[in-house]
């Protein structure tokens, strides 16, 4: 029977191969069969469905179907009992670990919940923001990039801002300098009265909303259709520190932007010059300052004209010479001259 082992018949007594079924059926009908007829189906011997006839070893007799069924049912019962024991062990382990989690108090008295939660979809984001607003009692810190805020964006969170104002919550907002030119923002701040304080910078980090130094929300994709809800104390503290440092560098919205000290160069053009000196492309500069690429290029053209640069390469040199790259204080350019070295 060499060459016809169990590897060629990978089954049990409940699912015989076609050849095994045929030979076993014949044995049951006849009561016994010659050993040579079972040589090509060794599975029947291995599964104890056939065994030698004690009266004549050249013949094989079948195990009765009733005995085979009893054996199969007993095996299935044992498997079910083993599965039940494994399920019971898994449930017990889960309950044990869950119990340990309940015994550990949340850091800083924070409510139970994951340290980082992904919010997929605007509806879930809005619901989580509303929940955080209702729980907020002290302060809200926000960073709003993207330049001039559209009326729709301001109206979207107005109900939350009004609810916070009603509870005496302090709000501080950071915007880019470009946002100063939006009438919607000025109207929003007027409506909120002294509840909101706003400052601006040349550029800010991505959007951030931080409630009571306990929970923060940041975008999770470029389209802002997904967000991360952060409750890990270390992450929240880090974001709060970043905000405070930016806040100290920012200029109050009610204060004018500082003069560049160079006639004909605005504060925005000075920021563009610094980013050009760092090697950034027009599109990147526009995104960081919250303006359109077209507006950015118009400012670059005015920079070139003011500094007397005929090419982008020469503009880079002129920016460095004028100190607009941030390496040293700006050089005051007398009226009518393109740069300190202009001919």
TrEMBL record:
Pfam families: GerE (PF00196)
CDD domains: LuxR_C_like
Every HTH luxR-type domain range: 258-323
Domain of life, source organism: Bacteria
The protein, known as: Helix-turn-helix transcriptional regulator
């Amino acid at each position: 029977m060499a060459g016809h082992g169990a590897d060629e018949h990978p089954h049990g007594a409940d699912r015989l191969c076609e050849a095994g079924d045929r030979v076993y059926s014949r044995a049951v009908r006849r009561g016994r069969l010659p050993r040579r007829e079972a040589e090509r189906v060794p599975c029947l011997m291995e599964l104890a469905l056939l065994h030698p006839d004690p009266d004549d070893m050249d013949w094989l007799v079948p195990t009765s179907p009733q005995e085979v069924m009893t054996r199969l049912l007993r095996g299935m019962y044992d498997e079910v009992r083993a599965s039940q024991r494994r399920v019971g062990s898994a449930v017990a382990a889960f309950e044990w670990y869950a119990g340990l989690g309940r015994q550990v108090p949340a850091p800083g008295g924070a409510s139970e919940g994951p340290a980082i939660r992904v919010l997929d979809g605007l509806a879930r984001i809005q619901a989580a923001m509303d929940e955080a607003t209702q729980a907020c009692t002290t302060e809200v810190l926000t960073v709003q990039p993207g330049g001039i805020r559209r009326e729709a964006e301001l109206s979207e969170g107005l109900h939350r801002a009004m609810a916070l104002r009603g509870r005496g919550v302090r709000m501080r907002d950071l915007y880019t300098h470009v946002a100063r030119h939006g009438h919607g923002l000025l109207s929003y701040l007027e409506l909120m009265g002294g509840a909101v304080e706003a400052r601006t910078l040349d550029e800010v980090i991505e959007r951030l909303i931080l409630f009571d130094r306990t929970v923060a929300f940041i975008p999770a994709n470029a389209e802002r259709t997904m967000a991360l809800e952060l409750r890990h104390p270390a992450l929240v503290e880090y974001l709060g520190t970043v905000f405070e440092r930016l806040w100290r560098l920012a200029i109050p919205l009610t204060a004018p932007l500082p003069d560049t000290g160079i006639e004909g160069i605005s504060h925005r053009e000075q920021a563009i010059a610094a980013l050009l000196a760092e090697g950034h492309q027009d599109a990147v500069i526009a995104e960081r300052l919250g303006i359109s690429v077209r507006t950015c290029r118009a400012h670059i053209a005015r920079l070139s004209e003011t500094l007397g640069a005929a090419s982008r390469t020469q503009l880079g040199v002129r920016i460095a010479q004028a100190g607009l790259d941030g390496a040293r204080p700006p050089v005051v350019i007398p009226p009518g001259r393109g740069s300190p070295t202009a001919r």
